[in-house]
C-alpha cells in the first residue's frame, strides 16, 4: 500500500463514518406533537399540571419553578446559558412547552406516603428564601416536611416524616421524569437551542449491572424495558450539552421502570419502602442535577454521572484531548485560539511519526525516475517488475508502508475530536472571528470552503503515481470537494482544527520535498547495498 492509497483509505473511512452519522439522523424517529396532558405513571401517581401554585427559587446559575402544592419541578431556567446565539433569554431545561416538555414529579409513595393511588400531597409553604423553600403537609397525624434547596446546578430535596400516630407507616421516596423529545434541531447555530442532533438525547440509567445504559424511546413505547433494581446509580434525561439527573436516596435499593402514556415518556425511580415507627421521625435526602454537562462537577454529584458526556467508542482519546484542551484554555481566554493551540500540541506529540511519514513520502517522490526505469526494464513481466522496484526501495531505504501507518493515526484522532466538539458544552456559543458558535456548523460556509481550498493545494503537492488505477485517480481528485460538502454540517471547532492541521501538513510536505530533492540531486541520500537473493521456495514434506 503506497502513500496515496493510504490517504485514499483514510478519506473513504472518514466519509463512511460521516455518511453513517447522516443515516442515523435521517432514520431517527420524529416526535409527535400534540396538546400536553397530565401524565400518569403505573403507580397511579399523577403529575399535577396546575401551574397556579407555582413559586420560584433561584441562585446565580439556576432558577427553579416548583408547584407549591405537590413539590414537583415544573420549570427550570439556566441563567448562565442563552437560549440561542441571538436570543439571550435563559435556556429552559424543564418546561410545560408542548414542543419540549419535561417536568419532574417527586414525593413519597407507599402506604404512609404523601402520594397514593387516589390523591397527592397538599403542601403549604412554611418558609421560603431566595434559594430554598420548605413545604409542610399533615395527614392522619403524620407531618411531612419537604425542603428544596439549590446548590449550584443541584436541587437538594430533604424529606422529614414525623409520625405522631400510634401505628407504623411505610414510605418510599420516588421521582418521575415525564417528557417528550424536542423536535430535531437546526444544523446551524442561529436557530439552534440545544445543539446538533449528532448527540444522543433520551433516557440514560446507571445501575449495579451497567454503569451507563441508554434506553431508547422505542423500547419505552413498546414496553420492552423491564424494571431494573439496583443499590446505587441514577436516572437521567440527556439532551445535547445538558442533562436532568436524579440520584435516589442512598439508604435503600431502588427500582427503575418506564411507561408511555398519551405521547409522554415516563421514567420512574422508586426507592424501597422504609418503615417509620409510631412516634418517631425519619429523614430522606434526594438530589437532582439540572444543568450543563460539566464533567468535573458531574463526577462529584454521583459515581459515573460524568458518562452522560458521551464520547462513544472514542472516549479513551476524547477524554484526554478534552483535558488537554481544558488545560490550555486555563491560559488562553478564547476557545478558538485554544483549539488552534490544541492542534499544535497534538501535531507536536505525533511529530516523530509525522517526520517518518513525510520524509518517506518525499523520498518516494524523488526516486520516481528510478522506479519508472525499473518498470521499463521489467517490461510486462509483473514478477520482475516487483523485484526491480523492490531493489530501488531497498537502495534508498524507502517503504511503501512507512507513509501509510502514521497516517492511520490521524483517523481515530479526527473521530475523537468529532465526538469531543459535539459533546463539550464549553464550546457552546463561543465565538471566534465570524463564527458565532464553535460547537455548531459555520453559518456562512467559510471554514468548509477554506478547508477545501487548502486540501486541493495539499493534494497537489503529492503527485499521484503514473501507474495509479484510473478510478482511484478520479476518486482522489474528488476528495477535497466531497470534504467540503460533508464538512458543511460539522462543528466549526472541528473544521478549525482540521484547517490548522492541514496547514501544518503542507509545511511538512514542502520542507521534506525541498530537502529530499536537494539531497537526491547532490547524491547525498544514504544508499544501501542490495543483495540479490533467490526467492525461497517452500520445501515439500516427505
UniProtKB/TrEMBL annotation:
Cellular component aspect of the GO annotation: plasma membrane
* Highest taxon listed in the record's lineage: Bacteria
Q: What is its main location?
A: membrane
Which InterPro entries does UniProt cross-reference here? Membr_insert_YidC (IPR019998), Membr_insert_YidC_N (IPR028053), YidC/ALB3/OXA1/COX18 (IPR001708), YidC/Oxa/ALB_C (IPR028055), YidC_ALB_C (IPR047196), YidC_periplasmic_sf (IPR038221)
Q: Which residues cross the membrane?
A: 327-350, 401-421, 441-461, 481-512
Q: Which residues form the Membrane insertase YidC N-terminal domain?
A: 55-324
Q: Where in the cell is it found?
A: Cell inner membrane; Cell membrane
The processes (GO biological process) annotated in the record are: protein insertion into membrane; protein transport
Q: Does Protein biosynthesis show up as a keyword for this record?
A: no
Task: Report domain Membrane insertase YidC/Oxa/ALB C-terminal positions.
Answer: 335-513
What keywords would UniProt list here?
Answer: Cell membrane, Chaperone, Membrane, Protein transport, Transmembrane, Transmembrane helix, Transport
Membrane topology is: Multi-pass membrane protein
Q: Name one GO molecular function term.
A: membrane insertase activity
Indicate the quaternary assembly: Interacts with the Sec translocase complex via SecD. Specifically interacts with transmembrane segments of nascent integral membrane proteins during membrane integration.
Task: Give the protein family.
Answer: Belongs to the OXA1/ALB3/YidC family. Type 1 subfamily.
Q: What does this protein do?
A: Required for the insertion and/or proper folding and/or complex formation of integral membrane proteins into the membrane. Involved in integration of membrane proteins that insert both dependently and independently of the Sec translocase complex, as well as at least some lipoproteins. Aids folding of multispanning membrane proteins.
The name this protein carries in UniProt is: Membrane protein insertase YidC
This chain's source organism reads: Psittacicella hinzii
Gene transcribed to yield this protein: yidC
Amino acid at each position: 500500500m503506497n502513500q496515496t492509497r493510504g490517504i485514499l483509505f483514510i478519506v473513504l473511512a472518514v466519509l463512511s463514518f460521516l455518511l453513517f452519522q447522516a443515516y442515523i439522523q435521517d432514520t431517527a424517529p420524529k416526535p409527535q406533537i400534540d396538546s400536553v396532558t397530565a401524565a400518569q405513571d403505573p403507580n397511579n401517581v399523577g403529575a399535577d399540571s396546575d401551574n397556579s401554585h407555582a413559586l420560584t427559587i433561584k441562585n446565580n446559575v439556576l432558577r427553579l419553578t416548583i408547584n407549591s402544592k405537590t413539590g414537583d419541578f415544573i420549570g427550570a431556567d439556566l441563567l448562565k446559558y442563552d437560549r440561542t446565539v441571538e436570543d439571550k433569554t435563559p435556556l429552559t431545561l424543564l418546561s410545560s412547552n408542548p414542543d419540549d416538555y419535561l417536568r419532574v414529579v417527586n414525593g413519597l409513595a407507599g402506604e404512609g406516603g404523601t402520594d397514593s393511588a387516589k390523591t397527592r400531597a397538599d403542601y403549604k409553604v412554611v418558609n421560603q428564601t431566595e434559594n430554598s423553600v420548605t413545604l409542610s403537609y399533615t395527614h392522619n397525624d403524620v407531618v411531612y416536611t419537604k425542603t428544596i434547596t439549590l446548590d449550584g446546578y443541584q436541587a437538594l430535596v430533604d424529606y422529614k416524616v414525623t409520625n405522631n400516630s400510634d401505628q407504623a407507616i411505610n414510605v418510599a421516596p420516588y421521582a418521575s421524569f415525564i417528557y417528550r423529545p424536542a423536535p430535531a434541531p437546526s444544523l446551524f447555530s442561529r436557530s439552534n437551542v440545544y445543539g446538533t442532533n449528532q448527540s444522543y438525547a433520551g433516557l440514560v440509567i446507571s445501575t449495579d449491572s451497567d454503569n451507563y445504559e441508554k434506553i431508547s424511546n422505542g423500547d419505552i413505547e413498546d414496553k420492552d424495558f423491564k424494571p431494573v433494581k439496583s443499590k446505587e446509580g441514577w436516572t437521567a434525561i440527556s439532551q445535547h450539552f445538558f442533562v436532568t439527573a436524579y440520584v435516589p436516596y442512598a439508604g435503600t435499593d431502588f427500582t427503575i421502570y418506564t411507561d408511555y402514556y398519551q405521547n409522554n415518556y415516563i421514567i420512574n425511580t422508586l426507592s424501597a419502602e422504609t418503615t417509620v415507627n409510631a412516634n418517631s421521625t425519619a429523614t430522606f435526602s434526594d438530589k437532582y442535577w439540572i444543568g450543563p454537562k460539566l464533567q468535573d462537577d458531574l463526577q462529584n454529584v454521583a459515581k459515573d454521572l460524568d458518562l452522560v458526556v458521551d464520547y462513544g467508542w472514542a472516549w479513551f482519546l476524547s477524554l484526554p484531548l478534552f483535558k488537554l484542551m481544558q488545560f490550555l484554555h486555563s491560559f488562553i481566554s478564547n476557545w478558538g485560539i485554544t483549539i488552534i493551540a490544541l492542534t499544535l500540541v497534538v501535531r507536536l506529540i505525533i511529530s516523530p511519526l509525522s517526520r517518518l511519514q513525510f520524509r518517506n513520502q518525499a523520498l518516494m517522490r524523488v526516486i520516481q525516475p528510478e522506479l519508472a526505469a525499473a518498470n521499463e526494464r521489467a517490461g510486462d513481466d509483473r514478477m520482475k517488475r516487483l523485484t526491480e522496484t523492490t531493489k530501488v526501495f531497498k537502495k534508498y531505504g524507502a517503504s511503501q508502508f512507512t507513509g501509510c501507518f502514521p497516517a492511520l493515526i490521524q483517523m481515530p484522532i479526527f473521530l475523537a475530536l468529532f465526538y469531543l466538539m459535539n459533546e463539550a458544552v464549553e464550546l457552546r456559543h463561543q465565538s471566534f472571528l465570524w463564527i458565532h458558535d464553535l460547537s455548531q456548523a459555520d453559518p456562512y460556509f467559510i471554514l468548509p470552503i477554506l478547508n477545501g481550498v487548502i486540501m486541493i493545494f495539499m493534494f497537489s503537492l503529492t503527485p499521484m503515481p503514473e501507474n495509479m488505477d484510473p478510478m482511484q485517480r478520479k476518486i482522489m481528485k474528488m476528495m477535497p470537494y466531497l470534504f467540503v460538502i460533508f464538512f458543511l454540517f460539522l462543528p466549526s471547532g472541528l473544521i478549525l482544527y482540521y484547517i490548522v492541521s492541514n496547514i501544518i501538513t503542507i509545511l511538512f510536505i514542502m520542507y521534506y520535498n525541498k530537502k529530499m530533492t536537494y539531497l537526491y540531486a547532490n547524491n547525498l541520500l544514504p544508499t544501501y547495498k542490495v543483495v540479490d537473493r533467490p526467492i525461497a521456495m517452500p520445501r515439500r514434506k516427505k
